Amino acid sequence: MISDPILAYGSISAMTRLPDGERRRIRRDGLSLAFTVGMYGTAFGAASVASGLNLWQTSALSLLTFSGASQFALVGVLGGGGSALSAIATSVLLGSRNALYGLRLAPSLKLSGARKFLGAQLVIDESTAVSIAQEHHGDEGMHFGFWVTGLGVYVFWNLFTLLGALTARAMGDPATYGLDAAVPAAFIALLWPRLKGSKAWLAAATTILLVLVLVPVVPAGIPVIASALIALGFGWREGRA
Q: Greater confidence, 98 or 17?
């Protein structure tokens, strides 16, 4: 299973203080989310081929870029007749949020050498969310959640990307299978238990309203960056308080 090689990464193998029951729970939550997100890779594979990319180009995007929203933005612009430069610019804008995730995780993960390079590739929405959800377990829990989820998503996302690319013609529109709703649903389930207190609910409500206003009128990627800035603003005010 995916969870076994994870224990080979340096400091992760030394996480003896994390209770076995909690380790199993984190593994279950991380891999469940990873599989759900990975299934959505089928939609990306099909959409990428439909936009004009071939099988190898589609697989390379998932292997090297590994940022679902950025990948969808790129093939969406290409499929809509946009230039390669516009597609890349939109993809980079949408993927820039991962830099904020990296800043948040770096003090806890403390990666170096080859692990730092690999860890940077795995800093995505899902690995960040599961890692931060383990803060009450300290750095050990955050390490384990990050690697389980990050490696899990990487494997499943690339497998399902390949499947989607190979079966693109037979699938038709991937949205008819409800895959476009699977990832948001998984995130809501992960986020819901952390909405404790009026400030958390206010931040969530403000973000939802902002995104609903921006989505129809601004380019792809802007609503995500704006929502991240809302979270930073609330965090800054909380820190000053």
A: 98
